[in-house]
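Page 47, continued from p. 46.
Same chain as before, 228 aa.
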Amino acid sequence: TLIRTEKDLADLSSLLSPQEKERAAKYMVKKAADSFIISRAVLRALLAKYLQIEPRSIVFQQNKYGKLYLDSSLLQFNISHSHGLALFIFALNAPVGIDVEFVRHDYKFTDIAKKFFSKAEVAELFSLPVSQQIQAFFNCWSRKEAFIKALGEGMFSPLDEFSVEVSVSKEGQVRLSYANDDQEGKFWTLEALDPADEYSGAFAVGLAEYTTDFYDFEGLNSFSSKKP
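Result:
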């Protein structure tokens, strides 16, 4: 964990802009406020490493759907956090999206899946053994979230107009297709992640070919390679 004392939290908070500090102060639940402070401070620290500037000097812009970006920079990025785990993704000159979900085994997912998933996804999900369906649901959700975040439209993008592979496999490239135009999905690559026990994750990138490096963030000045 990055936070062991209130001083650790204060150090991270010092990287935030006045507007971000004001936003954090509006959270009614301290845990939610702390999560925002940590994730936004780490994002600033990581971007600063790439751009070779001070974290506090970074000025975020937002598109009309709320996705963060940097003016006059080819570096694109995205962030997701759930139940104490945060994932960050960065790419040069390519749109990216990432999502992580905590797998809640008591979650009542049937109606949600039927409302938001495509017909193909619903059919695949409920064809699986009951014991595998909850993991598959969160796999599907994280993959769809990653893709619409890469598009930059968030939940404004209709979730049932494209389909992702619902397989229980938690790592590697997964299928992505559109109901009306199967070609459009081929401009994107969707990859499943296994970030930690009891979590499901995925990222999307607007490239057919790319290389990836994975790192664990252990502190403001500490990174460790996670995968070759």
